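To assess whether ligand presence alters the predicted conformation, the chain was also submitted together with magnesium ion. Input:
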Amino acid sequence: MASLDQYSTMIIIALIVLFSATIFMNIRTIRIHKSSLKLAQYDQLTELPNRSKIQELITEKLATSYKYMYFILIDLDNFKWINDTFGFSSGNELIRQFVSRIQDEIHEEANFSRMEGNLFLIAHTAESYEEAEIYAHNIQTSLLTPFTLKGNPIILTASIGVSVAPTHGTNTWDLLKHAEQALYHVKESGKNFIALYNEDTHNKDTERQLGLQFREALSNQEFYLCYQPKVDAMTKQITSVEALVRWQSSKFGFVSPATFIPIAEKNGFIFDLTEWILVEACKQMKKWELSGSPIQKVSVNISAHHFLANTLDQMVTAALNESELSGDRLELEITETSVMENLQMATGTINRLQELGVSVALDDFGTGVSSLTYLKTLPIHTLKIDKSFIDELAQSDRDAALVRMIIELAKIFKLKVVAEGVESIDQLSILCSLQCDEIQGYYISKPLVSEEMDSFISNLAVLQR
Ligand code: C2E
Ligand code: MG
Ligand code: MG
């Protein structure tokens, strides 16, 4: 039988064993945890921080004080070829050689990361803008000495995109995005050079990408029309609607017409687009006509290019015929700038349109050229006072005087006058007192899809009271 002392000794030993085991297990768990954390944050092949770790490090660095901080994004060109030709393990070997060469090149406190595959990032502070560019050039020059794979000399080239804080952003997301956009530009333009982020270049790239998408968007029915009502200033009854195109792109989301119309004009797509808009608007107007709607006319915006190409009247005739709509149900909105390049030709086109019964409105009047010559020469029916004069109408005597003058001018030329962009009751009552004929703007209604028009018209009764 064991004595009490022996029992206590055994219990103490058991407790020590249990305690040590627990500590050991905890240390192991911490070690395993630490090593899995390391796995999640560092690239196994190169031991460089990976994308998520570098983002954390950069965010910390950006929170310190710095004059400039550069972000050099390096993409090794044609790396797939290396993997295909020499195999993956040689590809990996080359990545290791590349990393070690770059480590010799960069500042020891610079952050160097393998973002993914053959994409690397270097981030560090700098005293000047030029310093960032010099770093990027040094990296490129360091690649000129060939690497060696299985005894073969291999020349690597790199496409490099650079962004610099604070000029191109002050947060990790913006700076990486801008370095990526600069890199994308290099790759699109033939690889193997360095580009510093530049807003113009980026805008051009966006423009090009949007432009490439148009035709697919048209066939996928991503464009649709909204209609903004115009009402009689006195009776508040709806007279007509302006068709405004919208683009809900599957690739870019909603794109404003103010963005894509100028691009469509530049790349020639505007012809197909206007053709589609005319047909669609005429068909909708025909539906309203057949259903006895009070909407008398639909207007369609026409770009300058149509006056230079001289095919507008054919396009309009075809759209009217297709929907069996009579010309007096259609109005075209043009701007002075759109006709000024060839006034004679434009006058001819408008005259031919008039023979079809189609009327023409001068849009955005008061902005751009606004010359009396156009009012005198062009066979137009309506003047639309630009929103910029309406905005301050209730506050600025000067704007009120200008609007009064435009309305009087319109009366002299026997033109109907429409105020655009009316947003408040004060603007509306001033325009009524100045005897403006028609009103368009958010105060009356935002542009609506055709299905919303009926309920808008029934609600108009409220305004008429
Ligand atoms: P716009 O022809 O002068 O059209 C008026 C613009 O002002 C429209 O913008 C309209 O939504 C907006 N607007 C109307 N009332 C108000 C208001 O009370 N407040 C404010 N803040 N805005 C108001 P949207 O639809 O974005 O169109 C912008 C421009 O894009 C148009 O100016 C026109 O030049 C062009 N555009 C739009 N649709 C077409 C189209 O189908 N064909 C062509 N060629 N150009 C179009
Ligand atoms: Mg317009
Ligand atoms: Mg306008």
